[in-house]
Amino acid sequence: MLLKKLLNQEIPDGTTLACIGKPGSGKTLLCIKLAYEYTQRKKNVVYLTTENTPTRLLSLHEHLGIRFDIANDLQYLRFIDAHSWKVGAKGEGLSTTMISNPGNFSEVSLAINSASKDLPEGTLVIIDSLSGLMLGAPDETRIKNFFHVLSQRLNQKGYTLIAIVEDGCHDPKLTLGLRALAHSSLLMRVTEDGMGMMNREIRIAELLGCDVNTKWHRIRVTDTGPEIGG
């Protein structure tokens, strides 16, 4: 499993993780790989996307070695499309629930509830990204309340929630507040080595109830997607 290097175990069911990093640090790549790993183990995933249609999201990562089998894997993957409304595109297949106004948190909550209906404990819910939803609802109190209530509701059902937050796109106090509400956080960054090469790195800052390795680890992109090195 991708995060075992950091956790020495799987992500506990009923956990909320805030995945925080600047654009280009690999947050979506990480989440797509986690979704792929879940479907390979016949576990369910609900994936809310704000920056790409579901089809484009999958095709963008196929050349990086993350290839979902339409006949088998995608029966465990349900999408919530919060992007197509921006460009006036129609909804796609792929078990997709559409959102017409991402800034309407009531609509978003209903969409997540509909997409996850009847799914068992151990389901993974990914919001890619929370920042994309926040652009349409700048009220920080509403944002925090939405995230807190959603997190509590999903965790009570035994679901794991991972929410991407774009570092640098919001007031730092809001980012810290969302991180505190999650109780667990995954940080990502891009660094430059002495040869001028750019490297993606990741670390678990905290994980509620677990002992974790908090040091930075490099992310390598292999033929089967991202892997976490030493």
Describe what this molecule looks like in 3D.
The structure is a single chain. The mean pLDDT is 90. The chain has a ten-stranded mixed β-sheet with strand order 4-3-2-5-6-1-7-8-9-10, with helices on both faces. By secondary structure, it is an alpha/beta fold. The radius of gyration is 17 Å and the shape is globular. The chain has one domain: P-loop containing nucleotide triphosphate hydrolases (Rossmann fold, 3-Layer(aba) Sandwich), CATH 3.40.50. The longest helix has 17 residues, at 140-156. It has helices spanning 4-7, 27-40, 54-62, 84-87, 105-115, 130-134, 140-156, 172-182; strands at residues 16-21, 45-49, 77-81, 96-98, 124-128, 160-166, 184-192, 198-206, 217-222, 225-228. It has eight helices and ten strands. It is 33% helix and 26% strand.
Structural class: alpha/beta
Rounded mean pLDDT is: 90
Distance between the termini: 15 Å
- Which superfamily, in CATH terms, is the homologous superfamily? P-loop containing nucleotide triphosphate hydrolases
* Number of domain units: 1
Summed up, the helix count is 8
Rg value: 17 Å
Order of helices and strands: HEHEHEHEHEHHEHEEEE
Q: Specify the helix fraction band.
A: 25-40%
Per CATH, the class reads Alpha Beta
Low-confidence stretches: none
- Describe the global form: globular
